[in-house]
Amino acid sequence: MKSLLITGGAGFIGSHVVQHFLTHYPQYTIINLDKLGYAGNVSNMQGFFDHPRHIFIKGDIIDKFMVEKIFVDYDISGVIHLAAESHVDNSIHAPDVFIQSNIVGTFTLLEAAKKHWRGNKKDNRFYHISTDEVFGALGATGHFTEDSPYLPNSPYSASKASSDHLVRSFVKTYDLNAVITHCSNNYGPHQHAEKFIPTVIRNALLKRPIPIYGNGKNVRDWLYVEDHCRAIDVVFHQAQPGENYNIGGNNELSNIELATHLCQQLDQILPWGEQYASLLNYVKDRPGHDFRYAVSTQKIQQRFQWQPRYTFSQALHNTLAYYIQQATQSMRDKDQKSCDVPA
Ligand code: NAD
Prior knowledge:
Number of helices: 10
Order of helices and strands: EHEEHEHHEHEEHEEHEEHEHH
CATH superfamily of the domain at 2-191 and 223-250 and 295-309: NAD(P)-binding Rossmann-like Domain
Radius of gyration: 20 Å
Largest sheet: 7 strands, parallel
Structural class: alpha/beta
Bound molecules: nicotinamide-adenine-dinucleotide
Number of strands: 12
Strand order of the largest sheet: 3-2-1-4-5-6-10
């Protein structure tokens, strides 16, 4: 039995990663460390919270004493580090917490791993989840490769780039067995309401204007979260120490294309007499808005034969079903509250 520390397991991607490792690896106990910040949600852990091999700890990764104690108490032999402040807009308005969680928090985990593992590379692994945003923005063509230069443009991507550099330095200086992956935009159930796809669906269902930054032409590559989990699994178990990999969905769409597509799907699932796309509303662009991100996934495909399994339409269907169910439940709860007669 091995103990894996997964950070950020109450968040969007982290909750799927915890579920994946519990389902596929009976030899792992998962220690899930999350501070339950605004983006962490106990309901994301509903499917596994009471699992006998899942231990949830509410705590902050910058708490050095607590992190070191977790390594000792559970004899942690692997880390999958996802905990981070993750929303670019928030990093523009209040970057401080991004420096603390994303940089100081990663440093705290690296120090604890270094201390606990003492150069034992064979049996231990530190996996840092990063983002394609560290490479900056692309023009209309080309892809980021694993060797692209770091050119972060937002406080969020700069904080993630800083944490990547710290991880690399621990590999080179202390021989830590660490790997890094850079993924593109994830989508699927459990994403916080502030993110693009949940915002489009929620506003459409509430018949409110759907905000689209600038001219809507910014392009993102979309990766279904379950495909991402399979890639994390492969890299965690098979990559060489110090390697880094890009993970993407090979599925580029401009924001306006994606929003229009979601509206068209909703027209079919929940027709309301008008087209949902009539709610699309261009708003002032985000400062420093990167035009396009796209990653080459050649390395992970060639090395591990990994590629996305879900088609975009299947994955989007699952995603829509989840957010429609969430919205319906929340409307029902509100109705119920307004019908409640005080005793
Ligand atoms: P999320 O915001 O949904 O979840 C982050 C989780 O980390 C939350 O549960 C939060 O409570 C927790 N957390 C934040 N700061 C913490 C701290 N100091 N101590 C303990 N817990 C803390 O984020 P996500 O979308 O699931 O992203 C997970 C990781 O993947 C992040 O590192 C992010 O940079 C990276 N990433 C995400 C995407 C994406 O599209 N979502 C794309 C590329 C990379």
